[in-house]
Amino acid sequence: MQLPTAALVSLIPFLPIITAQGSSGSGKTTRYWDCCKPSCGWPKKGNAPSPVGTCDKNDRPLNDGGNTKSGCDNGGSAFMCSSQSPWAVNETVSYGWAAVNIAGSNEASWCCACYELTFTSGAVNGKKLIVQATNTGGDLGNNHFDLAVGFEPGDEDEDGRVHC
Ligand SMILES: *[C@@H]1O[C@H](CO)[C@@H](O)[C@H](O)[C@H]1NC(C)=O
To answer: Which residues constitute the catalytic centre (predicted)?
Structure first.
């Protein structure tokens, strides 16, 4: 589905991993793709057994235990994997990833947690997007989901890979 640049959403945390939050609420979405290593890609950020996977500059998975510096930092070589882009299951439901800031919560709670977002405005009104939190951002407001909406088919180079 076509994701909006900004839309209002209602959100329901729906996996047991974040039952501490338990309730639904409203929030907003924006979209980003900066290629940087997502914050939850570092070890022990959340309750998940392993950090969010990252990739090298050629979009190949790193098996580094989450310890490689972000390619956006001096001397770093870990990037977001292009596989962390959304896909549609059908007309109404899609899955994806997001940088998240939940009011009254913290990264330890939301890293790798999943949220069901129902859009309440725009062209996608009524459609659902289920996201896993992989990142956060200092510029995010309360209950803000910055959707990792990366590459479109056709963005690949001649070698078939997407380069950051
Ligand atoms: C879309 O997929 C979701 C998740 O599998 C399912 O619950 C829903 O019934 C499907 N909707 C349609 C219109 O097929």
So the answer is: 34 (nucleophile)
CB-based pocket (< 6 A), ligand 1 = 89-93
Residue 83 lies in a domain: yes
Beta carbons of 145 and 117 less than 8 angstroms apart: yes
- Eight-class DSSP state of 70: B
pLDDT digits (tens, 9 = 90+) for 56-87: 999 999 999 999 999 999 999 999 999 999 99
The verdict on residue 157 lying in a domain is no
Give the Å distances, CA to CA, from 119 to 5, 7, 62, 79.
Answer: 12, 7, 34, 29
Output the pLDDT for position 6.
Answer: 53
Q: Which runs of E-coded beta strand occur in 24-143?
A: 25-32, 87-88, 93-101, 114-119, 128-135
CA–CA gap between residue 5 and residue 14 (Å, rounded): 24
Centroid of ligand 1 to alpha carbon of 93 (angstroms): 6
**Residue 59 sits in which domain range?**
5-148
Tokens 């998975």 found at: 61
- Residue 75 CA to ligand 1 center (angstroms) comes to 44
* CATH number (domain holding residue 61): 2.40.40.10
